[in-house]
């Protein structure tokens, strides 16, 4: 749907200082119908990447290709892209309803559709009670919700969400994730940046990981986890006389003993446990979470 | 450029400014005008209607300029700094459409201010037995045209520099635009061909704001040359168009980061 071709972006901080490189030959592809998480530490270039994608800033070199399914020209492409900025600020003296009408009218949506879509999504995201309130009286989470509704009312094919889950309470995060799952089932593509790795792992099929403007990984989350998984197994067994298995280290865990062993030692261990009549509670391959992998990569 | 998109942006820009309590300030200016007219007319001998007109047109000119400068400087700067511009430009609308729409929205506020304070001025003028002259209407129109010119200049500067400098540059341009014609008439300048030529070149770049001041003609009921109004209308339209084009080119090239 979107292809980044060696996109580089340099920012000039001062006239005589060397430009600072925010994106460094970034190349990846956003596939249609997926939820794609966009990960990276602060300053990794996520927001710059999104701004370049939305043409708010021009790349120093490289290009971004928009698939024809989004449209043939800028107007058509932007009609099919919904965007929620990071920490959204809206016109403080407009009401939520006026904001949605404004966005709807720019997209040439019929009045009745604006009304029905606004109601549908604001009810789903539980912001319908504040639609006639001025935006200056909205809390951070409420602004996030009305911003999400404004991105959704034009029924976009691609949704770009910059830190959509930041600043939301647990219920709000769940509602946003539910909405994302519904949208992806409808065939929409969602590209979202986040620092909350558990949420990214929960909803994303693919991830794009950046480190100091460079691409670290782009692809399937499960494959990443599988590739980074070790060959170790964790066995949870009932307490036993430590002398029986003195050559293996164990730790206490919830009234059981946990033994970590390599895959090639597994059969021998199982035999020894059986011969010593030690009951096995659980055997599990050590699988790191996305968060563990991110820590390991060190971004 | 699609007119429909421009009109949507201008409608909501007008609504946003209108709801920011600017109307209270306009009516407050009307009240100040009433009090000033009353006080000054009590101290003036003979012609209170002229005083009412003088004070009214002065206040009208001052408020339109203040709105053009201070609201104009913030109009795009605030959008970019608070990132509300992202919300709009991530939709099917071009930067020129957005710029013209925002400008038009503030035009409407300036027009509203001109109409309300113009009506107040006319009421007070009549109250003190003033006699209607078309020049009063044309004077109001020229104040409005002048404020449009100031507004587009402020918008231009707000795209290339920070808020404070944009205001300072705009006020400086206004003062220079007013003064340059007078300076050209000074004997010292006339006697120096280099100075005279330099100033004549500069006068093509800096807008001629003295063209929009009809106060003397109104107060002393002097007749205007028949082509004067057309000339000032065309001048303001052409000059504003050039500045708007320049601002659009800058906005198109600008990184909105």
Task: Please describe the topology of this protein.
The complex is a heterodimer of chains A (299) and B (257).
Chain A: E1 2-11, E2 20-30, E3 35-39, H1 46-53, E4 61-66, H2 74-79, E5 81-84, H3 96-106, H4 111-124, H5 140-152, E6 158-162, H6 170-185, E7 189-193, H7 197-203, E8 206-211, E9 214-220, H8 221-228, E10 232-237, E11 250-253, E12 256-262, H9 266-275, E13 280-285, H10 290-297
Parallel strand pairs in A: 3-7, 3-8, 5-6, 6-7
Antiparallel strand pairs in A: 1-2, 1-4, 8-9, 10-12, 10-13, 11-12
Helix pairs in contact in A: 3-4, 3-5, 4-5
Chain B: H1 3-43, H2 48-81, H3 84-89, H4 95-127, H5 134-160, H6 163-184, H7 187-191, H8 193-205, H9 215-219, H10 228-253
Total of domains of chain B: 1
Helix content of chain B: over 70%
Rounded average pLDDT of chain B? 88
What's the overall average pLDDT of chain A, rounded?
Answer: 87
Helical stretch tally of chain B: 10
From the 3D structure, determine the CATH topology of the largest domain in chain A: Rossmann fold
Could you tell me how far the N terminus lies from the C terminus of chain A, measured between alpha carbons in angstroms? Answer: 27 Å
Content-based structural category of chain A: alpha/beta
Total of DSSP H or I helical runs spanning 4+ residues of chain A: 10
SSE pattern of chain A, N- to C-terminal: EEEHEHEHHHEHEHEEHEEEHEH
What does this structure look like?
The complex is a heterodimer of chains A (299) and B (257). With 299 residues, chain A is of the alpha/beta class. Chain A has two domains: 2-220, Rossmann fold (3-Layer(aba) Sandwich); 229-297, Alpha-Beta Plaits. Chain A is 34% helix and 27% strand. Chain A contains ten helices and 13 strands. Chain A has helices spanning 46-53, 74-79, 96-106, 111-124, 140-152, 170-185, 197-203, 221-228, 266-275, 290-297; strands at 2-11, 20-30, 35-39, 61-66, 81-84, 158-162, 189-193, 206-211, 214-220, 232-237, 250-253, 256-262, 280-285. In chain A, the strands form three sheets. Chain A has a six-stranded mixed beta sheet with strand order 5-6-7-3-8-9, with helices on both faces. A four-stranded antiparallel beta sheet of chain A has the order 11-12-10-13, with no helix packed on it. A three-stranded antiparallel beta sheet of chain A has the order 2-1-4, covered by helices on one side. In chain A, strand 6, helix 6 and strand 7 form a beta-alpha-beta unit. The two termini of chain A are 27 Å apart. The model of chain A has no long low-confidence stretch (mean pLDDT 87). Chain B is globular and about 60 Å long. Chain B is mostly helical and 257 residues long. Chain B has ten helices and no strands. Helices cover 82% and strands 0% of the residues of chain B. Chain B has one domain (3-253). The mean pLDDT of chain B is 88. In chain B, helix 5 packs parallel to helix 10. At the A-B interface, helix 2, strand 5 and helix 3 of A face helix 1 and helix 3 of B.
């Amino acid at each position: 749907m979107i292809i980044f071709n060696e996109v580089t972006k340099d920012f000039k901080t001062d006239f005589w200082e060397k430009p600072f490189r925010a994106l460094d030959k970034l190349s990846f592809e956003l596939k249609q119908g997926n939820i794609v998480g966009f990960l990276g530490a602060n300053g990794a270039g996520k927001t710059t990447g999104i701004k370049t994608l939305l043409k708010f800033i021009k790349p120093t070199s490289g290009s971004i290709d928009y698939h024809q399914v989004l449209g043939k020209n800028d107007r058509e492409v932007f009609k099919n892209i919904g965007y929620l900025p990071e920490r959204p600020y809206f016109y403080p003296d407009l009401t939520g309803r006026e904001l949605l009408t404004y966005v709807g009218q720019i997209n040439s949506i019929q009045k009745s559709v604006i009304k029905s879509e606004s109601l549908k999504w604001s009810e789903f995201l539980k912001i319908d009670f504040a639609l006639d309130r001025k935006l200056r009286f909205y809390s951070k989470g409420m602004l996030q919700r009305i911003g999400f509704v404004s991105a959704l009312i034009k029924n976009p094919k691609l949704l770009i969400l910059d830190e959509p889950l930041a600043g939301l309470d647990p219920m709000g995060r769940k509602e946003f994730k539910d909405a994302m799952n519904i949208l992806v089932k409808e065939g929409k593509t969602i590209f979202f940046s986040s620092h909350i790795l558990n949420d990214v792992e929960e909803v994303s099929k693919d991830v794009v990981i950046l480190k100091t403007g460079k691409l670290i990984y782009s692809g399937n989350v499960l494959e990443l986890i599988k590739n980074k998984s070790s060959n170790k197994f964790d066995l949870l067994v009932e307490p036993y006389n430590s002398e029986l298995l003195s050559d293996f280290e164990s730790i206490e865990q919830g009234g059981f003993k946990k033994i970590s062993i390599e895959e090639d030692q597994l059969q021998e261990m199982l035999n020894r446990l059986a011969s010593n009549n030690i009951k096995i509670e659980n055997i599990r391959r050590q699988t790191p979470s996305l968060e563990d992998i991110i820590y390991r990569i060190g971004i | 450029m699609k007119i429909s998109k421009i009109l949507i942006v201008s409608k909501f820009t007008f609504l946003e400014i209108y709801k920011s309590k600017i109307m209270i300030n306009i009516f407050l200016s009307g009240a100040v005008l009433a009090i000033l007219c009353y006080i000054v007319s009590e101290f003036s001998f003979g012609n209170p209607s002229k005083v009412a007109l003088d004070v009214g047109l002065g206040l009208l000119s001052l408020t339109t300029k203040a709105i053009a400068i201070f609201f104009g400087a913030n109009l795009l700067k605030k959008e970019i700094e608070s990132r509300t511009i992202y919300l709009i430009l991530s939709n099917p609308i071009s930067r020129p459409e957005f710029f013209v729409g925002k400008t038009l929205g503030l035009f409407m506020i300036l027009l509203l201010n001109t109409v309300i304070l113009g009506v107040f001025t006319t009421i007070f003028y009549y109250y003190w037995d003033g006699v209607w002259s078309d020049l009063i209407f044309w004077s109001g129109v020229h104040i409005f045209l002048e404020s449009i010119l100031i507004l587009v200049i402020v918008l231009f500067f707000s795209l290339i520099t920070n808020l404070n400098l944009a205001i300072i540059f705009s006020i400086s341009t206004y003062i220079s635009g007013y003064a340059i014609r007078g300076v050209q008439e000074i004997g010292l300048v006339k006697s120096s061909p280099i100075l005279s030529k330099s100033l004549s070149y500069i006068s093509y770049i800096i807008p001629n704001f003295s063209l929009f001041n009809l106060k003397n003609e109104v107060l002393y009921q002097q007749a205007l040359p028949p082509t004067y109004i057309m000339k000032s209308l065309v001048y303001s339209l052409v000059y504003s168009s050039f500045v708007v084009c320049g601002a659009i080119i800058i906005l198109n090239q600008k990184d909105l980061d």
